[in-house]
Amino acid sequence: MDGGNWKEMFNAACEGDLELVRYHVRNGVDVDYAHPEFLATPLVACTLAGHELVALYLLEAGANPHLHSEFDGLTPLQAARQARLPDLEAQLLQRGAALPPAPPAKMASAWLHRLLGRLAQSS
User: Fold this and answer.
1) CATH superfamily of domain region 3-122
2) 8 Å CB contact between 20 and 55
């Protein structure tokens, strides 16, 4: 795989250029590669940019629906929810994608927030 081809495919995905993405996929560019300069996956990047058709194509081309994008700090499912792309979210769920468990600190914080809210309502 040529890194330049990956970069061009990544940029095409971010810009919503489905035909250029298809070209690079047909020519062997790895849809799950995260270049060391970018640390982002094409699937999460194009999802956050709102390019649902490109994201759906990448899934059909074999993109991993579970692959975390280090730069964005998101999985494809988290990105789809953040970008409010329900069709993509449904496709990811059909492919077994799941939200990662909330870190304990966030769960404790949410629990405490609910408890304080209930206490405030009861007084």
Assistant:
1) Ankyrin repeat-containing domain (1.25.40.20)
2) no
